[in-house]
Amino acid sequence: MNSNKEIRLEDGRVETIESIYQVYRDPLYRFVYRYSGDQQLSIDIVQDIFEKLIKKQQYSPEKGRFKTYLFQIAYNTMITKLKRRQKLRTLLPFLASERPTAISIEEKMSVQKAVQRLPEEQRAVILLTYYHDLPQKEIATILEVPVGTVKSRIHHAIKKLKEELEVDGDER
Q: What CATH topology corresponds to 92-165?
């Protein structure tokens, strides 16, 4: 962790990312874990919060307390990840199952083959969205296309996968 980055808190103090991490890591983890009940998701989200803080600190003391700012990032990140997970479960319920022994090798192979048969552009957005958990804005940057194009490709890819795999349910 880059401890050189400093953040000015609401009381005027300047703290390093490392000291902020030491103070807020556990409370943020407990919040996410109590909400989601998922240990790995909670660990990932806490890591994401501090990566966001390092990459693009947008905290402004005039807007409120730093703790509130961090918990807002945690909540928004968690909700986004949970929505993606639910969308994946709707699309491919056995792929996101919490009972991995219930998934047959044939089912896994049919999903892999269906994803491989998608047009290249659609395959890229499905892999980046569901397998690498990237937000649409980052996918747009990676693929050098507008966010609207990413959304459209996801929509069409999901439709094709549902048809091919004969999965019922809404994509949302």
A: Arc Repressor Mutant, subunit A (1.10.10)
Kindly report the number of other CB atoms within 10 A of residue 172's CB atom. Answer: 8
Assigned CATH class of 6-87: mainly alpha
pLDDT tens series, the chain, 172 aa: 444 677 777 666 777 888 888 999 999 999 988 888 888 889 999 998 888 888 876 777 777 788 888 888 888 888 888 887 777 766 665 555 444 445 567 777 888 888 889 998 998 888 888 777 778 888 888 888 999 999 999 999 988 888 888 764 444 3
Cα–Cα distance for residue pair 147/58, rounded to 1 Å: 22
- Within 8 A by CB and 6+ apart from 67, the residues are 24
